[in-house]
């Protein structure tokens, strides 16, 4: 082993690097010849897609299956809590991650069910059916307006509407991420896709002999290798392929890394241009040897850099189109200044996650409850005018009373939430104007389609946070709804 050997520049690695990032098509082209043409975009990960998972409880039910469908249509990853997986597959198909769990059994609501969950939509309900029985497709129950003498079958309202909801809220409290953050890379449970996104870009691209890579060990991404200053080199890095479409992080203040390093100073670069050799927006951060720390990288503090030189006239980063990320250890800071916390040789930086931080707080737990939950036992209530569930609350095991207690557990949890209390649910097509109220006094009906749509809308509405409201449909069919306006008329819960 001689210095001569060590400093021998490696053309093969140089070509590999440029090929991985599609700068030159050489190896990709050979691969295509052997394996056939890859599907469009196979090589370009999608930054536009919502990275977090939406967890739907009650996904096989009338509202739940529509929430699943709408979530998939919007590009969310969906996980469904189901009790019978074959039945669930026949109702909601295969594009959903089906997990067998039961909200009345808290031990089933574990880290596998909750992994990567960004928001929970709960549409569960105790089973109610006509005393005379229902058809296999539950047509009598689903019509919602015609009256059949109802009864509870199976589990009790106390177990499902209260304990079950409370169990789900508790699991959410434990596992949901900060509401103001968006997960970009979660290395605790990396998919194959995620592992293929990162590739090495070492000083071999300019004649050096440093070598590094990204490995996935101990539920982290490990950026490690050897930096050599031979051949005027002195940096190692790992970079993502370009995301297409890019990440829109304009609602956030910056990105946050959870890292454990070796005491050296590293850099992160974000890019908004897809070309290989363009301006990168850089930020240096110091690590503490063997200690996990959070690094906040405010977009406002990113420095535009081109080949390690700062670009004085470059605009600030456009965080609405971040197309790649890069982590680097370099002998240099910027403009030929030396990195004061650098030593050549082996290095290691473990990364647990990269998130966007500083966003608005949005609802993370949507509970589909029911109009009428506060009416049983309310002084002055005229039961003859009330819907069956209010009139028959006692015969139905206190269904509404327990629903209210389930709501309370969510209101008290500290999770940003929205509680939707629909009037009688129908299987109609929906698309009607919506009437929102508070105080629990309205009567009427609403399509399950529209309730599912409300569930989807509130996930993006800061002013739907910590709000409980009733909803029914009006007469008019409408083409579009001003959701901001509807929610801006509502009061937040105390
Ligand atoms: N019907 C109405 O007119 C009306 C009016 C106002 C409000 N609501 C409320 O609106 C919500 C949605 O109603 P919907 O008609 O869509 O409900 P649904 O069709 O009866 O669906 C209930 C769902 O809950 C699931 N579930 C029940 N117990 C569970 C448990 N222990 N663990 C996990 N999942 C469980 C069921 O799963 P399985 O498939 O495994 O049984 C099913 O997917 C409910 O909260 C309901 O009370 C209804």
Automatic annotation (TrEMBL):
Signal peptide start and end residues: none
Alphabetical list of Gene3D superfamilies matching this protein: NAD(P)-binding Rossmann-like Domain
All copies of domain NAD(P)-binding, residue ranges: 58-172, 353-460
NADH:ubiquinone oxidoreductase intermediate-associated protein domain segment(s): 185-351
Protein name per the record: NAD-dependent epimerase/dehydratase family protein
Species per Swiss-Prot/TrEMBL record: Komarekiella delphini-convector SJRDD-AB1
